[in-house]
From TrEMBL:
Pfam families: Abhydrolase_2 (PF02230). Palmitoyl thioesterase that catalyzes depalmitoylation of CGAS and KCNMA1. Acts as a regulator of innate immunity by mediating depalmitoylation of CGAS, thereby preventing CGAS homodimerization and cyclic GMP-AMP synthase activity. Does not exhibit phospholipase nor triacylglycerol lipase activity, able to hydrolyze only short chain substrates due to its shallow active site. One of its GO terms (molecular function) is carboxylic ester hydrolase activity. Residues 14-227 form the Phospholipase/carboxylesterase/thioesterase domain. It comes from Monodon monoceros (Narwhal). It is an enzyme of class 3 (hydrolase). GO terms for cellular component: cytosol. It catalyses: S-hexadecanoyl-L-cysteinyl-[protein] + H2O = L-cysteinyl-[protein] + hexadecanoate + H(+). Its EC number is 3.1.2.22. This is Lysophospholipase-like protein 1.
Length: 232
C-alpha cells in the first residue's frame, strides 16, 4: 500500500511570509499527526504562528499507510518501521518512496524561484528522521536540516551515504528532551555524534525535563537558528 511518486501530491498547509518570499521551510510532522495538526500544536506552544518576514513555512501531511508498530493499522506516517528502536533495520523501501514524493515538493519550490540553498528541511520525531534521509541521501545542497526528538537507526542508510560523500554537507540542528521515554535522549545523542564523525556540522540542545513533545524554548532556539541559515 506504499505510495509511489507521481501518484501522490501531498496535502499541506502553509504559512506565508509577512513580506517578500525568498526562502522556504519544509516542516514534517511526527507519526500519526498531520501538517495542520503540527501547525496547530506549534501555535499552541508559542501562542502564535511560526512565521517569518521572508520564509514560507510548509507543513505537508504524510499519506496514510499500514504501520507495523500499530499491528498494520493505517496511520499518517512518512515510512514504516519494524519497531520503535534504534537497534533494528530500517524499512528502506518505504523511506525511499517518500524521499521521491518529498523531492517533488522541493522541486515545486525550486520551480517557483526559490534556490535549493534557500530551502530548509526538518521535522519532529519521525519527521526529523525523514528530513535527515531526504537531505543527507538526496539533497545535500539544502540550507540546513533540523531534527526535534528524532533519531537514526544504528545501521542507517544515512550513515552509509555519508561515508561515500566528500562534499560540503548541510548543518544539522538537533533538540531533544532529557525525559523523552518514546525516543530516548541517548538515541538522539548517538545520532548526533555519528553524524558529526561523518563530517556533518551539528548543534545538539538538550532540554531538561521535556518529554516527547515540543517546548517553547526549543522552538524559539530553532527560530533563531533558521534565521542564521536563511537570512533575509
Amino acid at each position: 500500500m506504499a505510495a509511489t511518486s507521481g501518484s501522490v501530491r501531498l496535502q499541506r498547509c502553509m504559512v506565508s511570509p509577512a513580506g517578500r518570499h525568498s526562502a522556504s521551510l519544509i516542516f514534517l510532522h511526527g507519526s500519526g499527526d498531520s501538517g495542520q495538526g503540527l501547525r496547530t500544536w506549534i501555535e499552541q506552544v508559542l501562542n502564535q504562528d511560526f512565521t517569518f518576514q521572508h520564509v514560507k513555512v510548509i507543513y505537508p501531511t504524510a499519506p496514510p499507510r499500514p504501520y507495523t508498530p500499530l499491528k498494520g493499522g493505517f496511520s499518517n506516517v512518512w515510512f514504516d518501521r519494524f519497531q520503535i528502536s534504534n537497534d533494528c533495520p530500517e524499512h528502506l523501501e518505504s523511506i525511499d518512496v517518500m524521499c521521491q514524493v518529498l523531492t517533488d515538493l522541493i522541486d515545486g519550490e525550486v520551480k517557483s524561484g526559490i534556490k535549493k540553498n534557500r530551502i530548509l528541511l526538518g521535522g519532529f520525531s519521525m519527521g526529523g528522521c525523514m528530513a535527515m534521509h531526504l537531505a543527507y541521501r538526496n539533497h545535500q545542497d539544502v540550507a540546513g536540516v533540523f531534527a526535534l526528538s528524532s533519531f537514526l537507526n544504528k545501521t542507517s542508510a544515512v550513515y552509509q551515504a555519508l561515508q561515500k560523500s566528500d562534499g560540503v554537507l548541510p548543518e544539522l540542528f538537533q533538540c531533544h528532551g532529557t525525559a523523552d521515554e518514546l525516543v530516548l535522549h541517548s538515541w538522539g545523542e548517538e545520532t548526533n555524534s555519528v553524524l558529526k564523525s561523518l563530517g556533518v556540522r551539528t548543534k545538539f540542545h538538550s532540554f531538561p525535563g521535556v518529554y516527547h513533545e515540543l517546548s517553547k524554548a526549543e522552538l524559539e532556539k530553532l527560530k533563531s537558528w533558521i534565521l542564521t541559515k536563511l537570512p533575509d
